[in-house]
Specification:
Elements (H helix, E strand, L loop, with lengths): L9 H12 L11 H14 L3 H11 L6 H16 L3 H13 L6 H13 L3 H13 L6 H14 L2 H14 L6 H13 L6 H10 L6 H13 L3 H13 L6 H13 L3 H13 L6 H13 L3 H13 L6 H13 L3 H13 L6 H13 L3 H14 L4 H11 L1
Amino acid sequence: MALFSRIRTPATTAFLFRHFSTVSPNSSTSLTTHQKSRAALSRLKSEQDPDSILEICRAARLTPSSHIDRIALSVAISKLSEGNHFQSIDTFLQELRSRPDLQNNCFASHSLILYGQAKMLNRAVTVFDEFYNKGFCRSTKSLNALLVAGLIAKDYEEVKRIFMEFPQRYKIDPDLETYNNAIKAFCESGSSSSVYSILVDMKKGGVKPNATTFGTLLAGFYVEEKYEDVGKVLNLMKEYGIPVGVNTYNIRIQTLCILKKSNEAKTLLHGMLSKGINPNSVTYNHLIHGFCKEGNLEEAKSLFNSMVNRGLEPDSNCYFNMVHFLCQGGDFEAALKICKDSMEKKWVPKFSTMKSLVNGLVSISKVEEAKELIKNVKKKFSKNADLWDEIEKGLL
């Protein structure tokens, strides 16, 4: 049966009313709008049936003016697009556009982003024009939303076209965000050198670039291995009075680590320190992950210790990555120590990583340590308790 051909029976409506409008079937206390949204989000995360996903959204009357509703809409669109229900997405968004409370620029802009999330950028462009003719999407903010939709969809050529044509066609003046979105498209598509001409246009239009502008450009030139241009960009930053601080270094370090050039990234760390620029936890996270991926676990451990000694706090992903890669490298004792520290902070790596650690400890005759680890996991985190019971039996 077609997704939108169902007739909503009184029974269906009653079920949805009970779920979202009351605390329980026997209660007369109405749920607040926030409670409805949370209930909808909770159900959307576990729901797979496309019809049910849409009914949940309709019953909750989601609106992009609410943060939690934006999350719920994003989850719904993601699930529908993963199932290739593109016509259903379009029909649903058209339904929302017909709601009187959503006849505004806020929804118009957000709907464009949802189309981008579904990788339906052509439809977003058409809808932008439709909105414009109805008196919406006539601001720079709406144009920026369309550009963001293109970036999310990774349709960089279309983003470039929109940037080049739409400001003049729709008589919308670009702002800094407009330029930064366009620059990201050029850099992500391997055309970083084209940004020089954009910088000239920005100067003519009285729009001053910021750290984000140059950070994106630096990352682009690193990926394209145009290191001479990296130096040019750093000089441009000085010309514009934009300090080369920790965030700029983090972008450079992250990009080098992604390119598996972590030793070069570490050289930048030393450069920071020599200039009196203090690295932060993000700096170390990038370096640690980079060295882990390259198999240099000793360097990763050294950086992890340096990070902690500097009083910087590793985040959960840093702990998880360390445990994962140390297990991969067979350093189970180091992995166990870091895992224990992580669990003290109530952060537990995913089940497959923990299972690898337990099996690794057993392989080096650390059976008691493996049992103790399982005991602590079951005590603090009840999820997967049955699976841990099975593994524990195998250790007896």
